[in-house]
Amino acid sequence: MAGGAAVEASDAGSMIGGVLLYGVSRLLFESWGQRLIAYYGATDRWNDVVQWFQSGWGIIFVLLACITTGLFRVASLGAGFAAMNPLLFVIVLTLSLVQILLLSLVLILVPLWMRNRMTTAQPGRLGVFLYFAALGLGFMFIEIALLQKLSVFVGGPMYSMAITLASILIYSGLGSYVGRKFENNLGRCLAMVIVIIVAVIGGEIYFLNRILPALMGLRLEVRWVVASIAVLPVAFLLGMPLPTGLRILQQIDPVVRPWAWGINAFATVIGGIMCVLLSIEKGFTVTLLAAAALYLLGGIALGWSVRRSRFAARAGEPVVQHAAT
Predict the structure, then answer these.
(1) How far is it, in rounded angstroms, from Cα 42 to Cα 35?
(2) How many whole angstroms separate alpha carbon 143 and alpha carbon 109?
(3) Rounded to an integer, what distance in angstroms lies between the CA atom of residue 124 and that of residue 307?
(4) Contact (Cβ atoms closer than 8 angstroms) between residue 256 and residue 121
(5) Average pLDDT, the chain
(6) Mean pLDDT across the stretch 107-113?
């Protein structure tokens, strides 16, 4: 009986969400459609995109609402017997990952492709894309793993969101600001930062698994301070690779910077679900180790791109190519 009520509630909630999404989207596209065209450039391509949303978006959002309803229904049905059938939740998360992949493609990469088509190949671009994708995935792996590992320590998920997440965002923002101060030898500075990040992640794993349980007897307010201080080193360092990588990219291939932002955003969006899937199967320690590996591999990929670009410049090939607009 309770399970049926939960399913009905989830169905009603997701349908209400779909209706609200429908109304807000219609208002946005009818009110801001021409401004979007003016902002992105008054091209026939963007005119067609906005007109398509104004005419056919209703079907898309109703379809998305139905997909969301189905996913919530499956999740609600599985909530009562999760301990007996954990595979069901893996299936739900996998379906959610597919949905997020599709939405990210439509809302991030497809508009980017329409606005910034690259008509020529630049040596080393694959390494650039791998680097910014690794940053997005690695950051989300670390963020979610820390949120979950510190959840009980700080008093529950709500406190973890308020304290741990806020601390990560503030400290990483400070790290980004400090990273802007790097002037010379950006590649060497970035390599040093990535190596330190890998080492600090190892220290975080040791702290979370060995030291944190012994501190559970502290007062709650003291544990909040300890949690905030615990994420300071890694969060501060995590703010540096993105702006430093963009500055390096400005030197070797500035045209591809929008793609660097888009790929990083795409990887960040899907990284949340991928982190949960990996954590369910292997645990948060493995997730943190995977994040360290991602940062290390990303740094190697960017270093390879820089070398390829410099070699092409010495060989007399054009270093900067122009994207179609």
Answers:
(1) 10
(2) 24
(3) 8
(4) no
(5) 75
(6) 73
Q: In this structure, what is the dihedral angle of CA atoms 81, 85, 87, 91, given to the nearest 10 degrees? A: -40
Report residue 60 CA to chain centroid gap. Answer: 24
Could you state, in order of their start, the residue ranges of all structural domains in the chain?
A: 2-115, 125-317
CATH 1.20.1250.20 fits 125-317, yes or no: yes
Separation between Cα atoms, residue 285 and residue 268, nearest integer Å: 20
DSSP character at residue 182: -
What kind and span of H or E run contains 320?
Answer: none
**Residues 136-162: tens digit of each pLDDT:** 999 999 999 999 899 989 988 888 888
What is the C-alpha end-to-end distance of the chain, expressed in Å? Answer: 57
Helix (H, G, I), strand (E, B) or coil at 138: helix
C-alpha separations of 158 from 29, 93, 138 in Å: 35, 22, 23
Q: How many CA atoms lie within 13 A of 31 on its CB side?
A: 6
CA 29 to the chain's CA centroid: 26
Count the Cβ atoms, other than its own, within 10 Å of residue 93: 17
Reduced to 3 states (helix: H, G, I; strand: E, B; else coil), residue 255 is: helix
The CA-CA-CA angle for residues 145, 70, 272, to 5°, reads 15
Work out the number of other CB atoms within 10 angstroms of the CB of residue 240. Answer: 26
Asked if residue 127 lies in contact with residue 308, where contact means CB atoms within 8 angstroms, the answer is yes
Which residue's structure tokens are 């709650």?
220
The DSSP result for 72-119, as a single string, is HHHHHHHHTTTTT-HHHHHHHHHHHHHHHHHHHIIIIIHHHHHHSEE-
Residues of the chain by 3-state class (helix, strand, coil), percent to 5: 85, 0, 15
